[in-house]
Amino acid sequence: MEIIIGLLIIAIGAFCQSSCYVPINKIKDWSWESYWIVQGVFAWLVFPLLGALLSVPAGHSFMEIFNAPSFNIWMTVFFGVLWGVGGLTFGLSMRYLGVALGQSIALGTCAGLGTIMGPVLLNIFFPELNPLQSLTAAVLIGVAVTLLGIAIIGVAGSMKAASLSEEEKKAAVKDFNFPKGIAIALLAGFMSGCFNVGLEFGKEIFIPGTQDMFKTLPATLLVTVGGFLTNAVYCFYQNQKNNTWADYSKGSVWGNNLVFCALAGALWYSQFFGLSLGKGFLTSSPTLTTLAFCILMALNVVFSNVWGIILKEWKGCSSKTIAVLITGIIVLIVSSFLPQLL
Fold first, then answer.
1. What does 288-305 look like in DSSP terms, one character per residue?
2. DSSP state of 43
3. Which of 40, 75, 280, 325 could anchor a disulfide with 212, C-beta 3.0 to 4.6 Å?
4. What is the pLDDT of residues 29-70, one digit of tens each?
5. Confidence check: pLDDT of 335 > 80
6. DSSP letters of 109-124?
7. What is the Cα–Cα distance from 144 to 151, expressed in whole angstroms?
8. How far from 188 is each of 60, 110, 114, 125, 147, CA to CA, in Å?
9. pLDDT tens track for 270-301
10. Are 54 and 205 in contact (CB under 8 A)?
11. Which residues, including other chains, have CB under 8 Å from residue 58's CB and lie 6 or more apart?
12. Residue 211, SS3?
């Protein structure tokens, strides 16, 4: 029963993350770089800090978190900086492929690489911990099935690109560009996988006595702080390049935009808050604990495609294309539970 509860919590977090781009559509009169960094303040600083504070046991100080080895702390932040590159290109993949297909390709790549890269890189620095033992046959099969589901959805995207006229593509996704979008989405997925690598390096960064469900929240904060630094540098550069600093002085839209940026940030952070809580219920299954990140990304893809259908990004596609899309979604759902059956 605890395993089912854990998976449901992760699924709720995935649904929230997949919905985070909906509030962004309500932001007015700001350029991409302006609203991206403002929502990032909430997504990568405010809410992760609140989550990390929640992990502090009674009678302890938040600063005790930083009693962990400095190497682990800095490596966690470093991989957060690399993940930040994935976050930037992730947004661009939505621009060129739409919510459904962009998230499918980027998150699918992130799911597979993030799950495998963590133990592999950790083994380079701490071979005495034998982190590779977590990559069991069941874990690798789970990753393979997830990637299969992503590949099927990618085929559906290719069929969509081939069947629609330029006018229909633009109607669904304004800047639709399949070749460019695929390249960016793959890069986004590769770099986004560094998030889980950061969590692996930071998995021992918590105060003794912390409940299992809160243990990854301090590491999550360190990763997102690193990602915020990358995004801040790029967004402020774009503000300067595009002369959009004036966005921040538009007092008439600040109230509206701040609300929707905060909502988008809260929804985005929910996935990793849910991941931490969910893993607390999966401790009886080492396989699912290792695969939790992969499961989260797979469910993100499932829900992003649901939103893609709601937002009519697949409007005008043939029934065959829709059938392939639904097949890919079903495979991803199965991948979340298959490892437990092996």
1. HHHHHHHHHHHHHHHHHH
2. I
3. 280
4. 999 899 999 999 999 999 999 999 999 998 899 999 999 889
5. no
6. HHHHHHHHHHHHHHHH
7. 10
8. 38, 8, 12, 25, 15
9. 999 999 999 888 888 787 787 788 888 778 87
10. no
11. none
12. coil
Residue 59's region, left for phi above 0, alpha for psi from -120 to 50, else beta, is: left
What is the number of other CB atoms lying within 10 angstroms of the CB of residue 224?
30
Q: How far is CA 100 from the centre of its chain?
A: 14
CA 289 to chain centre: 17
Entry pTM: 0.81
Angle formed at CA 165 by CA 164 and CA 166, multiple of 5 degrees: 120
Q: How far apart are CA 216 and CA 222, in angstroms?
A: 10
Between CA 220 and CA 130 the distance in angstroms is 23
Can you tell me the distance from the alpha carbon of 199 to that of 275, in angstroms, rounded to the nearest whole number? 11
**Which residue, 298, 308, 289, 292, is CA-closest to 330?**
298
Q: Are 121 and 301 in contact (CB under 8 A)?
A: no
**What angle (nearest 5°) sits at the alpha carbon of residue 116, between those of residues 110 and 119?**
130
